[in-house]
Design a protein that fits this description.
By secondary structure, the protein is an alpha+beta fold. Helix content is 60%, strand content 14%. The chain has helices spanning 9-93, 97-108, 134-146, 204-219, 226-243, 245-255, and strands at 113-121, 124-131, 150-160, 169-177. Strands 1-2-4-3 form a 4-stranded antiparallel β-sheet, with helices on one face. A hairpin with a 2-residue loop joins β1 (113-121) and β2 (124-131).
């Protein structure tokens, strides 16, 4: 016998499918929330690790900055010490310069010249004085040029004033202080070497010693010259042989009486 279902089965199936859909949707939402939570937790951990690394790097950078500051302070102290050392070396090198300077002033000044003022500004020396004539000043400049401690005399002013009849001329002379053997440039200043020290002229002994060695080498091939003297020695020995019979003849002549 056939059975006929008159209940609304389509509505029940629709409701059943709707429940399944909402259940699947809820499960998907819960899964998505779980995934988001896991992702957020993982990102928080990574951010925390990166912040720790940043803090560590910041601490190291601060230490390096402190070390760099100390190094800069040490470099400043080093520069000050080097400047003091250079000043001390310069003072040590120029300690006897004033003694030699006054000695050279006495040695170079000719008769008929009198100094009234001496001013020094570094390596520059300004002399003011009186002289009998222009020739005296010229002789004084030549003496300065020949001195080993002063060079490049420059006469800026010379004029005749009748205040002193014996020394009527007044002059103003500027020159450069130097040391014996020091190289002076065209600008009147000492020529500095690559090490920061003034260049010095080569000593005359060292300059003459170098050309002497080629002369000795060139003189070495002249050694066969003694052979001539040795060749001359037989001639000298032969002369007694020729003169020997002469005494015998004289002896015979003397024996006849």
């Amino acid at each position: 016998m056939a059975r006929i279902n008159l209940l609304p089965w389509r509505a029940e199936r629709r409701k059943h499918r709707e429940r399944e859909f909402f259940m699947q949707l809820g499960a998907a939402v819960v899964a998505a929330i779980l995934v988001v939570l896991v992702w957020m937790t993982w990102m928080d951990q990574r951010i925390g690790n990166q912040n720790e690394r940043n803090d560590y790097l910041q601490g190291e950078i601060k230490q390096l900055d402190e070390r760099i500051t100390k190094i800069k302070d040490l470099e400043k102290v080093r520069e000050r010490l080097l400047a003091r050392k250079q000043i001390i070396e310069q003072l040590q090198a120029n300690r006897s310069q004033m003694v030699h300077l006054f000695d050279e002033l006495v040695r170079t000044i000719p008769d008929g010249v009198r100094l009234t003022s001496v001013k020094q500004d570094g390596d520059k020396l300004t002399l003011e004085g009186q002289s009998q004539s222009n020739a005296r000043v010229s002789a004084y400049m030549r003496n300065i040029e020949a001195s080993g401690w002063m060079t490049n005399p420059d006469l800026s002013v010379i004029e005749a004033k009748g205040e002193d009849k014996t020394l009527p001329y007044q002059f103003n002379l500027s020159l450069t202080l130097t040391k014996p053997g020091q190289v002076i440039g065209p600008d009147g200043k000492p020529v500095m070497g690559p090490d920061g020290k003034p260049l010095m002229k080569p000593e005359p002994g060292a300059a003459t010693a170098s050309p002497a060695s080629p002369a000795s080498d060139s003189a070495a091939p002249a050694m066969p010259a003694p052979a001539a003297s040795s060749a001359a020695s037989p001639a000298t020995t032969a002369s007694p042989a020729t003169t020997a019979p002469a005494p015998t003849a004289s002896s015979k002549g003397g024996a006849t009486p």
